[in-house]
Amino acid sequence: MHRSEIISWLRETDPSRLESLWLSADQVRRAQVGDSVHLRGIINFSNWCIRRCTYCGINADNRVLRRYLMTSNEIVECTRTFRQWGLMTAVLQSGEDQRITTGWVTGLIARIRQETDLAVTLSLGERQEEELTKWRAAGAERYLLKIESSNRELYESMQPGRRNAWLSRMEVLKTLRALDYEVGTGIMIGIPGQTYEMLADDLLFIGDLEPDMIGIGPYIPHPATSLPAAPRARTDQVPNDQVTTLKTLALTRMICPEANIPATTALLTISQHEELEMGLACGANVIMPDRTPAEYRRLYDIYPSRIPFTTERLTELQNAIHRMGRTISTDSGRSVHYLKRNRNTPAVPAGVDR
Ligand code: SAH
């Protein structure tokens, strides 16, 4: 897809044209990754962070936030109920902090693999190659690290006091690929200063990077951070609304047909309750319910009013998936893109209809 075509889709407002975009993305999704929806349970196990990312509510500059680190026992305990909800992957996410040691994470991965046999995805920010190597060997198969914006200047404007922050994040993505992780990256929609041109470049950049998983979510301003909401008056500013996020999601599916793409929690947060299905209808094939225990959930305060995934909501989600004629995946849901680029493993996972 050409840059100009991407830009005109991103600016499209005609409802019938948009309907055709959703439909095309949905067809590509069905043909390439099938009808099953993969459910991942996220556990945000620590909100300690050394970084100062100006978009994020748990950054080190937030001195009033109470910090927590869950114990391994608490985390493993959480994952025990995952299978009964169809959650076949545990996503372990946290702020970036050295109190989360290499050995501790290695032990945690090994326990989850042994005691629950769930797939393990890590999202712990930028970490050293040595530890990434050990965690891969311990059984973590996937890693999420969003580039947030492919525009180096825009990204670094949100990283005060850090030189080469963008390059450093890119290096980690390369290392993850070399270590044979399934690699996930992604961007935020509606960052102040993000233009339609920049967002089109983000999509082209992601197309070149060929990640196995891609997370697309709206930027949601947090009152305790220095990054404001995007200025509404500027016509070239990308808005952080639902429809722009869905357009970006749909275009991502067309550009990276075989990737695993979630309807992100941030998208669900800005959507109406009954629109839970929208992301799934526009190219997404993954949902990642937040299963962090209630006492910690509100402290993982990256942006305001994150929706709690109660058991009622999980039931509702499962019903919605079935209503759409989709199925809930019963396997670990590796990315078709990853399986294809690895010749040693079968090209098409069971359950994908070709
Ligand atoms: N420390 C890890 C995990 C961070 S939380 C890391 O940096 O990768 C995971 C994601 O939450 C981030 O990648 C970012 O895209 C998203 N996020 C953080 N603050 C946000 C905000 N204010 N609005 C929307 N998404 C946000």
Structural features, described:
With 354 residues, this protein is of the alpha/beta class. The chain has helices at 3-10, 15-33, 72-79, 102-116, 129-138, 152-157, 165-178, 196-209, 242-255, 265-270, 278-281, 294-297, 311-323, 336-341, and strands at residues 36-46, 87-94, 119-123, 140-144, 182-189, 213-218, 262-263, 286-287, 327-328. Strands 1, 2, 3, 4, 5, 6, 7, 8 and 9 form a nine-stranded parallel beta sheet that branches. β3, α5 (129-138) and β4 (140-144) form a beta-alpha-beta unit. α2 (15-33) crosses α9, α3 runs parallel beside α4 (102-116) and α8 packs parallel to α9 (242-255). The two termini are 24 Å apart. Mean pLDDT is 93; it is low at 346-354. It binds S-adenosyl-L-homocysteine.
Order of helices and strands: HHEHEHEHEHHEHEHEHHEHHEH
Q: Segments where pLDDT lies below 50 for 5+ residues?
A: 346-354
Classify the beta-strand content into a percent band: 5-15%
> What is the number of beta strands?
9
Bound molecules: S-adenosyl-L-homocysteine
The percent of residues in helical segments reads: 25-40%
- Terminal CA distance: 24 Å
Shape designation = globular
Structural class: alpha/beta
